[in-house]
Amino acid sequence: MSSTAKILADMKINPKGIRFNDLQKVCVYYFGKPRQSSSSHCVYKTPWLGDPRVNIQNSNSNGKAKYYQVKQVLLAIEKIEVVNDSRN
Question: Residue 7's closest CA among 55, 68, 77?
């Protein structure tokens, strides 16, 4: 299992225990390089209309990602996978 797949599995099991750096790796894998990463925020572009971005923030002093942002990333990945499955 690749490290991204392992992190993704961990995100689904325990979204509160994910490190911000691991969340970044997953976002880069699924969404590409962030369009903004100079501040504490990393903003990733998504391929759909409406709210076409995923925004994660490194502000937690213990290095953990914010729970609600992990859940948002999981929902965005699920949406990408549904779109990709419908194309095949």
Answer: 77
